[in-house]
Amino acid sequence: MLIDIRSDTVTQPTQAMREAMANAAVGDDVYGDDPTVNALEKLGAEILGKEAALFVPSGTFGNQLALFTWCRRGTEVVLGEDCHIIVHEAGAPSVIAGVQTRTVPDTGGVMRPEDVLKRLRRQDLHAPATSLICIENAHSSGKVASLRDMDAVKAIASGWGLPVHLDGARIFNAAAALGCSAAEIAARADSVMFCLSKGLCAPVGSLLAGPKDFIGEARFKRKVMGGGMRQAGILAAAGIIALKEHTGLLTEDHRRAQQLAQGLAAINGITVNENDVDINMVFFGCSQASSPEAAEKIVGHFAKKGIVINPPENGTFRFVTHYWINDNEIAAILAAAQEAFAGSQGEGGQAH
């Protein structure tokens, strides 16, 4: 079996999930009569402390649906310059919600309140009005923002009468890292999106949660976006197991990420900032991958060992632990890394 550490999105459903999917009671979710989807939405809302939730196909779908629901066309959304919505969602805010994005520095995944304030605008002859502030926790960089940092942004939003949307794709990772409940994090936002398919083993789906009226409008706009699924209970069944049985296992993924980071840092030429390993992601640079050709050889070496990795992005590799990576896999990854990077010595370049 391949060891895949490209992302925690590669997790395969467990046998229990497959059995639940095969036996799920289903109905037509567009009519609202799929009992398994309804149960998942109720459970997700309760766990996050929100009034209601809506099952959607993906995290990107959920984030964009939130913008589409909260924002009037032609307004402006304030969010971090390196957040997932900006970097990895294909420019969708301009296409779907018809909004302009105004970015804020988010070093370490945190937007400073003074920087947020500088970006907020009232409508005038030259400027669109700010309609929404988005935050992300855990951040795509693997960093987790503190509740205090989230409170600072929420206070500004409240002062301006603005809603806050949380991209909480990995909110349960953030909760595990902070030692709090997901509901405590979600309380700092008006709407929250979180993924069932990132590290929790469900094959498909995310939930968007928030006030009842907001979710009612989002349900209509989900239909506009083509997200009205029919017998989706087959998918929702796995999501229920993900929420009930897998969120508590994420601390093990974090422990193994720390173990992986420490092992990689011991290899000559690799630079890991071990203080940045808040969740299940390890980012590192290395002098041995100073060119595309050298990086390709390293990726190929791992492949020969049955380990799937992504090539570096802007000079940085990312290894991600998840449910299917146990201690034996960590040992195999580190052994392959020792060979791959030691075997690339002498190809030049500087440590990242």
Task: Describe this protein's structure.
The chain is α/β, with parallel strands linked by helices and 352 residues long. The protein is built from 14 helices and twelve strands. Helix 3 packs across helix 10 and helix 13 (292-304) crosses helix 14. The longest helix has 16 residues, at 250-265.
Spatial strand sequence of the major β-sheet: 2-8-7-6-5-3-4
Mean pLDDT: 95
Largest pleated sheet: 7 strands, mixed
Report helical residue fraction. 40-55%
The percent range for strand residues is 15-25%
Structural class: alpha/beta
Shape: globular
Distance between the termini: 32 Å
Number of contiguous helices:
14
The unreliable regions are 345-352
Radius of gyration: 21 Å
| H and E string | EHHEHEHHEHEHEHHEEHHHEEHEEH
Q: Tell me the total number of β-strands.
A: 12
Quick rundown:
The protein has 352 residues and is an alpha/beta fold. Helices cover 43% and strands 15% of the residues. The strands form 3 sheets. Strands 2-8-7-6-5-3-4 form a 7-stranded mixed beta sheet, sandwiched between helices. A 3-stranded antiparallel beta sheet has the order 9-10-12. A two-stranded parallel ribbon has the order 1-11.
